[in-house]
Write a structure and sequence with these properties.
Length: 440
């Protein structure tokens, strides 16, 4: 990169750091070419410094020298989440002990928070689940399939959004995988694959490896027009970016809570539209699936009118107390502001990483096609595992996936931490490439 380009890059970075509380920019200004988009270029803006520092007090690891940038795997639990779970567990251990009736209102409040987070019609459309796989399987196993039915997926998906559909092959269902050699999937490509027998499109809102963000608005309209169900794996999006299941015409949305929602492991949810619920003949029932669970011996009663019917039995109460605290924190800070901050952080990373010799980004450069994930490939002669280990020993946590380095900051991370991460990456690259080949 010549000196002029280097100066312009430094100027952009310095401008971002100098005005964290009010700086906004439209990334389209800096692109030499733009592909047609059905969504507007988003605003990128850091959370004001004072607010950001208050948020960081909720995450004790930030004061202990750990640079955590692996939220696409598992988020740290905030102090609020920890305290909420601790109070519940203390009550279960040495207090009231039988807390089931006390837990029920908190469970309902958590459904309500999920509904707010994804702009669902109401909490009646939400079932609390233990993970994304269980949520997807609830939908897939409950739909009536026939030989020759056609499902569309793509070759970027995480296995949790593949195996439930592969399991349908024994029922004669045809599963077509759309290749995505450039790490993206457009509505136009999906439309070309839809045929009269297509029943469902399965797609992640944000891809786990490339970080590609699907155009759910366009896909939702396309699927609705063609009478195709849109079932979305939202685990890499919910809590990081805006999801509106109604405007996006999503029929089902599944998301574990441990990533961007910052909830405990073993939590999550399933959103099901009322129209889709009418088509699902669920395969698993429990005592809480029915309309009046406390009427123990009425085996003729109907299932619950709401999506609660999919919960079945006793839920993970400690996890849900933590989930409630986690979602409350996100909603109090505003998903719109959180999205702007995350996009500004990932843009800062994107701009800096493009100047690192030998590094190739596989995540989208355009912010409208990206969320909280920035992934890179290293030169073929550089061992990614060794670089990853070198980064880890410097107390920075990112992820190594499929031989690629993945960075995923959240709303409490700072621009300075992005600079520090890039500096650590450069140190690690130098350490590994300078080492004798026998040590690699």
């Amino acid at each position: 990169m010549d000196k002029a380009k280097g100066f312009l890059l430094r100027l952009r970075i310095e401008s971002l750091l100098a005005f964290p509380s009010s700086f906004e920019y439209n990334h389209a200004v800096f692109l030499t070419t733009l592909t047609a988009q059905t969504v507007p270029t988003p605003t990128l803006r850091f959370i004001p410094e004072k607010q950001l520092q208050e948020i960081r007090t909720l995450f004790p690891h930030t004061s202990r020298g750990l640079l955590y940038l692996n939220h696409a795997a598992t988020s740290p639990l905030s102090q609020r989440v920890f305290d909420s779970m601790k109070r519940h567990l203390e009550d279960r251990s040495e207090g009231k002990i039988e807390t089931f009736l006390d837990d029920l209102p908190q469970i309902q409040k958590t459904r309500e928070l999920v509904a707010r987070l994804i702009h669902a019609e109401s909490a009646d459309r939400i079932a609390l689940m233990g993970n994304t796989s269980d949520a997807i399987n609830t939908v897939v196993a409950g739909l009536p399939w026939a030989t020759g039915d056609h499902i569309l997926i793509n070759d970027m998906e995480f296995p949790a959004n593949v195996w439930p559909y592969l399991n349908l092959r024994s029922s004669g269902v045809e599963l077509e995988t759309i290749p995505c050699p450039d790490g993206m999937l457009t509505p136009e490509e999906v439309e070309m694959r839809i045929k009269p027998s297509t029943r469902l499109l399965a797609i992640s809102a944000v891809q786990f490896l490339t970080g590609f963000r699907a155009d759910l608005e366009a896909l939702g309209s396309l699927c609705r027009d063609r009478n195709v169900l849109l079932v979305v794996d939202g685990i890499q999006a919910v809590g990081a970016v805006r999801i509106d299941v109604q405007s996006m015409k999503i029929d089902a949305l599944a998301a574990g809570g441990q990533k961007w929602q910052m909830a405990p492991l073993g939590t999550g949810f399933l959103y099901v539209s009322e129209q889709l619920q009418e088509r699902i003949h669920q395969k698993h029932l429990g005592w809480l699936s029915v309309k009046v669970p406390w009427d123990f011996f009425d085996y003729r009663q109907p299932l619950a009118d709401s999506a609660r019917r999919y919960e079945g039995g006793t839920l993970n109460a400690p996890g849900i107390w933590g989930m409630h605290a986690a979602l409350s924190t996100l909603l109090e800070n505003g998903i719109g502001e959180i999205e702007k901050h995350i996009l500004a952080l990932t843009q800062l990373l994107t701009d800096q990483l493009q100047s690192v010799d030998g590094v190739k980004l596989i995540s989208p450069v355009s912010p409208e096609r990206r969320a909280g994930i920035v992934t890179m490939e290293l030169p073929r002669n550089v061992d990614a595992q060794s670089v990853f280990q070198s980064i880890s020993k410097r107390r920075a946590q990112i992820a190594l996936r499929e031989g690629k380095l993945r960075i995923s900051p959240h709303f409490y991370n700072t621009p300075d931490e992005m600079n520090r991460n890039v500096a650590i990456l450069k140190e690690a690259l130098h350490e590994v490439t300078a080492a004798p080949s026998s040590a690699l």
